[in-house]
Amino acid sequence: MADPDEFAQFVSASSHRLFRAACLLTGGDTATADDLVADALARVYLAWSRIRSDDAFAYARRTLVNRHLDWRRMLRRRAETLTATVPEHMARAGDHTHDVVQRDSVMRSLREVLHRTPMDQREVKLIWAMWIEVVRFLERRGIPVEAAP
Predict the structure, then answer these.
(1) pTM score, two decimals?
(2) 53 and 14 in contact (C-beta within 8 Å)?
(3) DSSP result, 118-138
(4) What is the pLDDT along the chain (149 residues), one digit of tens a residue?
(5) Is 59 exposed, middle or buried (0-12, 13-18, 19+ CB in 10 A)?
(6) Chain centroid to CA 138
(7) What is the C-alpha to C-alpha distance for residues 83 and 10, in angstroms, rounded to an integer?
């Protein structure tokens, strides 16, 4: 099993250099670089007992490069499905102003009601408000309320 203290020292000494290398590999995408470094260090930790101390950084750097190449290959293999029609959730992706205004109105009303309600009754009012929203949702979908669990 890997020595946690020894590995922690290695991580603190080399993570910055690994991150710089990962940034170069990803073209400056720091989020992906962070993910690559974390993945590489996790794999180095698993192999820590087999790695010679003088080769640890080289092993980690090679692991980083291999993980980046795997990621690039995976992106290339991921097939996209082309269709003649736009999916329904994309077709509705237009203006959401009405939804936002309605949600804001509900939240403001709920805050106002809760502000006037004593603390011991707030939970009951919240549960009631959530149930009303569930009933409205079921009614919009044409599901009878009696069928709800």
Answers:
(1) 0.51
(2) no
(3) -HHHHHHHHHHHHHHHHHHHH
(4) 457 788 889 999 999 999 999 988 888 888 889 999 999 999 999 988 888 777 889 999 999 999 998 888 887 776 666 777 766 655 455 666 777 777 777 777 767 777 787 777 766 766 777 777 777 777 777 777 665 44
(5) middle
(6) 29
(7) 50
**Which residue stretches of the chain are H helix?**
4-25, 30-46, 56-77, 88-91, 97-116, 119-141
Q: Which residues are CB-contacts of 37 (< 8 A; sequence separation ≥ 6)?
A: 15, 18, 19, 22, 64
Please count the residues of the chain.
149
Torsion angle in degrees (nearest 10) through CA of 49, 50, 56, 62: -130
Among candidates 111, 15, 85, which has minimal Cα distance to 56?
A: 15
Sequence letter at residue 28: G
Name the CA dihedral angle for 42, 43, 44, 46, rounded to a multiple of 10 degrees: 90
Checking 84-93 for CB contacts under 8 A at 24+ apart, the result is: none
**Residue located via tokens 């750097």:** 61
DSSP category for residue 149: -
